[in-house]
Amino acid sequence: MRHLTRAELLAAAESPETVGGARRRHVDDCARCRVALDGIAGALAAARDDIAPEPSPLFWTHFPERVAAAVSEAGEPGARPWPGWSLRRAAAGALVLALATAATFGWRATLHAPLRGPAAESKSVARGRAGRAPDGEPDNAWVKLRAAADGLKWDDVERGDLEAAPGSADRAAAELSPDERAELARLIATEMKRSGA
Amino acid sequence: MAPAETAPLPAAELEDAELVRLCLGGDRSAFDQLVHRHQRRVYLLCYRYVNSHEDAADLAQDVFVRGYRGLRGFKGNSAFSTWLYRIAVNVCLNRVGARRPTFVPLAGSGGRGAGVARGDAGQARGESGPAYMDFTTEAPDAGLLRAERAAAVRAAIARLPRRQRATLILRVYHELPHEQIAAILGNSVGSAKGNFFHALANLKKLLGTRP
Fold first, then answer.
1. CB A23, CB A4: distance < 8 Å
2. What confidence category does residue B112 fall into, taking pLDDT thresholds of 50, 70 and 90?
3. Chain B residues touching A67 at Cβ < 8 A
4. How many Å apart are CA B64 and CA A15, to the nearest integer?
5. Of A98-107, A156-165, B131-140, which one has max mean pLDDT?
6. Searching chain A, which residue's CA lies closest to the CA of residue B47?
7. Which helix (H) or strand (E) holds B117?
C-alpha cells in the first residue's frame, strides 16, 4: 500500500482527526509511516510546549507611547529617514561596482593567460566554456549536468531536498525572493554574455 | 430633506486599511491604533527570535517605525497584518543574522511555576494571536524541567535554516494558515508546507542529538 506523503504526514501530525480511515489503518499497519509520523508529531509537540512568557500588562500601555515617540521623529509616512542613507548606499554601490569590475578583469586575464609549467597539467581550470575542453573535446560531465538541470523548477528542487550547505553562496541564493532571483539571473546572463562565457 | 450625516466610527472599530488611509492623510492617532492592535503579535514574533524581553521590545519598536516609514508601500493587496509580519520577519532575520541569539531562563522557572494556558487571557482582553505563558501553581522541579526543555527547543529552532525557522514560528506560535505564511515569506503554499515539514524533521534530529 502507498506510504503517507509529506503532506499527509504533516496533516496527520497537526490534526489527526482529518486523516481518513484507510490512511489511519495504513499508519497502524506500517512501521515506516508510524515512525515518520511519531517523529514529526513529537517535534511539533515539543515546539508547541514552549510557551513564551507574557510581559507585564503595563508593557502594553507603555509600548504604544514608546512607538509614538519614535514615530514622531520619523516625520511623515514614507518620508526618507535621513538623506545620509542615500549617500551611503550610493558609495557602497560604487565600491561594489569597482570591485566587481576589477574582479572580472582579473578573472578574464587569468582565464586567457597561457598555461605554463605545473599549471598546464590542470586543464580542468579552463574547461567548461560552451561545454568543451581547450583541446576541443566535449566536456561530458558539464553536458550531463546541464541536461539534468534543464527544466528544473525551484519548487522541485526544494521538494527534492536538494538544499545547499549552510553558509554557502547557494544558501544565500536560496533565500532570495522570486523577483530578486530573476534579477540575479538577468545580471549573471548579462555578465556571461559580456565576458563571452 | 438632506440626508442625515453619519458620525465617524471610533478608530477602534475601523478596518486596518482604513486606519492606514487615515494615517497617510496625516492622522497620527490612526497609526497609534494600528500599534495597539498589532503590538502583541509583533512583540511575540520578535521574542521568538531573540528570547529576551528588552531585545524583543526594541525589535518590535523598529518594526513599527519601519512600517510607519514604509506605509505608502502598503497597497492593500494583502492584509495589513501580513504586510507587518513581513517587515517583522525581515527585521528579525537581519538582527539575528548580525549576532548570535541569547537564551534567558523562562520567567516561570526557578520555583515560580510555569503553568501553561494558550491564549485565554489575551482573548479576555479582546486580542487574538499567539500563545503565551500564564502563571499558576506547579512543582518547582516540573518548572525547572519545563524551562530546560524550552531552552533546548529554542536552541534547536535557532539552528534551523532561516526560512524553516520563520515558517515554524509563524505556524506553531502564531497559528497562521500556510497561505498567509507563504504570502509573508514570498513563496508558494507548497514551499511553505515543505519548509514546515523540513523544519519539524530537522527539529526532531536536533533535539534527538543534543547531549
1. yes
2. very low
3. 32, 35, 39, 61, 64-65
4. 34
5. A98-107
6. A52
7. strand B116-117
